[in-house]
Predict the structure.
Amino acid sequence: MARVTTADDTSSELSLRVNGTAHRLRLDHRTTLLDALREHLGLTGTKKGCDHGQCGACTVLVDTGLADTGLAGGPASGRRVNSCLLLAVMAQGTGITTIEGLAAPDGELHPLQAAFVERDALQCGYCTPGQICSAAAMLGEAAAGWPSAASASLSPQAGPVTLDAAEIRERMSGNLCRCGAYVNILAAITDVAREAP
Amino acid sequence: MRPFGYLTPPDPAAAIAAVTGRPGATFLAGGTNLVDLMKLGVATPDLLVDVTGLLPGRIEPVPGGGLRIGAGVRNSDLAADPRVRAGFPVLAQAVLAGASAQLRNMATVGGNLLQRTRCLYFQDVTKPCNKRVPGSGCPARAGDHRNLAILGGSPHCVATHPSDMAVALAALDAVVHVEGAAGPRALPLGELYRLPGDRPDRETTLERGDLITAVELPAPGLAARSAYRKVRDRASYAFGVASVAAALDVDGGVIRDARIALGAVAPLPWRARAAERVLAGRPATAEWFGRAADAELAEAAPLPDNAFKVTLVRNVVVRMLCELAGTELAGAAS
Amino acid sequence: MTARVDGPDKVTGRARYAFEHPADGAAYVWAVPSVIARGTIRSVDASRALALPGVLAVITPDNAPRLPGTGDPELALFQTRAVAYRGQFVAAVVAGTLETAREAAGRVVIDYERAPHDVTLTASHPGLYKPDFVNPRYETDTAAGDFDGAFAAAAVRVDATYRTPAEHNHPMEPHATVAAWQAGTLTVYDATQGPSRAAGQIAAVFGLEPGQVRVIAEHVGGGFGAKGMPRANVILAAMAARVTGRPVKFAVTRPQMFAVTGHRAPSIQRVRLGAGPDGRLTAVCHDVIDQTSTLKEFTEQSAVATRHMYAAPHRRTTHRVVRLDVPTPSWMRAPGECPGMFALESAMDELAAAFGIDPVELRLRNEPPVHPETGQPFSSRHLAGCLREGAARFGWAGRDPAPGVRREGRWLTGTGVAASTYPARAMPSQARVTVSPSGRYQVSIAAADIGTGARTALLAVAAESLGVPAAAIDVSIGDSALPPAMIAGGSMGTASWTWAVIKACGALRDQVRARDGAVPPGGLTAHADTAADIGALPAHARYAFGAQFAEVRVDADTGEVRVPRLLGVFAAGRIVSPAQARSQLIGGMTMGLSMALHEESAMDPQFGDYPNHDLAGYHIAAHADVQDIDAVWIDEEEPELGPAGAKGIGEVGIVGTAAAIAGAVYHATGIRVRDLPIRLDKLLT
């Protein structure tokens, strides 16, 4: 996808597709996707915890078509990424899903959202959108058979990964929670993983 | 962060020309290291040349049984690839031990190789650092160096290379393919990195405008019996304190071939050739594994707060080789 | 179990935190921290910053508005050219965009006169002195009997020094403020644990009447003490808004939080225990060495818990502090009790080992009938019950105390136990309850929910007090315009607020009954103030207690520590909201695990700051570090602390966890680690 800028332009007209809606913005190239969402699109559900990819609070989902690098296969639910390290200008041409886009159009909560409420898998709530987006993608990764550092076997014949406690803890470690809701987050994700087809 | 231009050139040659032609230009792939460094003020480009659409993004088999991994392949796809998992488990394990899922989804193979040290003083532009500003000094030696190098450092710099993937690639004799202003070339991974010496600012042998396009692995062979062990201060999502990539070929209790590389202990992925030389043709016993580790660590030059890494590396090497060989560990500790 | 009422807002991203409140035409602030630890600012050159298009102002000591209220030096921004610690805010940029503000901040050139700095705490530092009191207002030293004589004569003695490092609260939400002035009134959306108190303190800084400042904190992303009092962010934002005449947004960056938002200072603690042959303590001494900044004295009260934990006739507790060129310490979850009980409970474990007595049994033998130092009766104390219940649930019976003898493959295994305690208090608060003719109730109180579940707890007590379904009640908190209330801190929030709310609900219920249920068109309102009730509390000793049990495994090759099981059993009066209370207790224990194994802000004397000043360098426990953690409570009647009888459980969870883990590590390895965190290099053999 050709993007027309010269080497000296320090900002660009961008189109960002967020939660199914296309937004046209002129943004300083330094603007991260995180700040584009929060400061320019009024989508404050995604949080800034550290701004350096060290806490996961900024986790959003991007379509696998990101950057046209031939990423055939992989999770259908989208890839989880740290939006604080993604420049908005890099996120053109890919669909972005934030916490605001997880619930159904009629407001019915995503199973993970409902499970988090049910299991009290949150306290202050600041890491929560990132946890939920991360977990949504994680379920897709496991369904696609992606191993983790906790996987007993790397064998490709293993098929979809069974998400036991050790797997979920390892796969969710990119999302810090200072309130220490980890125990309940594990319970919430386990509930949903059990229900998943 | 200074304002910068952003280009998406149509082909690698145009990208290389864009970077070679402008001193403040740099390549952008996944951005997980570069954007971080730009926010810290450590990297100050005025033009980003986005190559994510230009780099080969697939893993292809090569004649002979090896794999050619496009530099644009994301870390997570590399680790999930069935051929990597089956033929080169050390590589899949190494990648999965690094960073977080979110970062692995964005980070590319090329970018992973070229990521900068996480030395706390390198990352802080308000402090001296010989790597950032040659001649300004190295405060790590008198300061916080617990996580820094015990091998390969110099009086000027004791930074460590933070990549796990590169350690596995070093053990696998990976070859790096580069496109540059002077055309394409290939070099063993061991020739990509430089030791700091008295010029820690020069980290690689790449020239300005050189673009890593692929990493090639030879046929599995030995690699099919390999593993990666990363030791860190947290159970996950932390840089290594020490890591070991190892592969072993044992026949009738005798070591036919061994590959060992160490991570988080040196300015580059450290191929433990002295250890490998000790092991060749020796019995696959804990005692010999210990001797091999000792031979490699004989040249270690630890600092006061990271001397524990010597013991740690030795213990991990011995344990890993025992597990790969199916040998009992008892009695190996020195 | 009632679900957290703000759960749906938080899981959908609807909940707005301070920085996220929309403000038309808002400008952005980026702070400039000092790069020297001590000295003065000779000059500030803002010319290159001001040259950037979009920069509205650069605020420096040269041009900053004079602040009438400089009583709190941490809030007296830019009023002096003196620099007290590295990272202190010394200038700030206001610009139209975040990116411009950040770039401009990097262009501000400050010429410093650097002075030699001292940032190192030592047990024999010549600058150590005895403060007039320790946080918040406890006596500095206490003594009874003849400790030295009794200790020397004791059959068994422990004399050990424990060290805790500097630690940082690090709520996931960085401190942030959106500030706007309107006709001389300041409105701030601020990340604060206490809107009422904050409004008063901010007003004092700017020389305003309290009514001229409104602080709104609808949702707060954690605090753990760091948001208990106003910080530089709210003053800076308000100042920038005044200087530019525009609303302003400011968030402290994560690295900046290591300097300007408070932290737990390092401690050096010497504990001496002497006991008779029966295991009963005869002599207890706890000496604390602490540090503070040169700006403000804050002495963490680490020996205070020792004053009430165990019986012993001969006792001494002391605190000494030195002013160093370091950031100002402040409250961090369970200040005093947290580091202090690590030391005391570790010493008790060492005493148990010295005796060959089971560590649970040792504590049971030393239960005091009344407060050992004041002689006051305990309003309720069930530490023994917690220890017994915990031991039963944890499978403690038959534990072989021998250290370093259990091995499963490459893992050495062990278990440990420690006691936990935290004061139970309530502070005066006010509440208002109204009912409309349609039967809709409104409860209003300037409480704050920082993740504790305050809204849910208040809804529960209001429903119970009014005798109506929760669905008929709206609870409003988080706004200084509401009836003033205690901060969400010191584990006093729930106790303080429920007291006021129950009182107000009771009064309203009386009004409704007096009218036979007929609510007039204008509705009915009841107001309550608990100041007199709290003032009338008898002088008794009120604490929550608990017992912490830990199981650890240590890798014999690498020294890596894993904690497969933690169990906390607590006695904390009435548990108002069971689901949220369990979450809080487990959250506290998780933070205790993190303290035991991971957390350290390591000061570099070359620079006077913490080189590991981000979340990659400062480790807090991640998902993979946390295995099974359970928290339960035993039934306890607390007869004195208000109509709810709630003791507060926000902090007791962190107290004792680290000692239990350290004891388990000793049990696994035979290595006694007395300085936290317990990292692998301390266990490598």
